[in-house]
Amino acid sequence: MPSPVYLSEEDHARISAAVGEAEMHSAGEIVTVLADRSDGYTDVALAWSAIVAFLALAALVMAPGFYMDLYERLLADWGHEWSPRMIVGLAAGVAAVKFGAMLLLQMWQPLKFWLIPPRIKTMRVHAHAVRAFRIGAEQRTTGRTGVLIYLSMREHRAEIVADRAIAAKVDPDVWGQAMSAMLAHVGQARIADGMVVAVGKVGAILAEHFPRAHDDVNELPDRLIEI
To answer: Where does the chain cross the membrane (predicted)?
Structure first.
């Protein structure tokens, strides 16, 4: 399934310009990443399907007559004796149908992401942001001054990950204001505005702690990366 297009070329240009402007005042290098999702969550979908199948088996144990009568009505197979093999087969069939149906239901993305526990979303977004940082920014600047602003749309979550030199001087809680400002705009479907605001706030923090030197060069691309 192709990922949705969240931003126009104009939006990309605005964000790139904001990054360039922020880097004019500091030695920091800002990388921006917009992800449709941070994980496929196949394990979560399978877990929900297994839970539904287990509940169906529990219902069969508590009310076997309902399923037996339903089986006889559907197959017009009246008056026969239920053998252990038939009962096991009925249980397996019920579990398989419930498992498959729940898996199919979760192909509707709004339901799938609604069912994912918030803690798991947060953990997966953080992990993916760290991976993206390691690929795109970590130790790729002379002074270890790379910062990644990461926004994951399906999970409605953001992360800011900083390289070693910045992490040593800036408390992680400082980035919270930038993330809150970004998500406030994103929540109103103004994604580009949110990214631009976050870049500005991160740039101000970097300018305070890492002012731009006269011989500073742009070491990382300013453009937004969509994945």
So the answer is: 45-67, 87-105
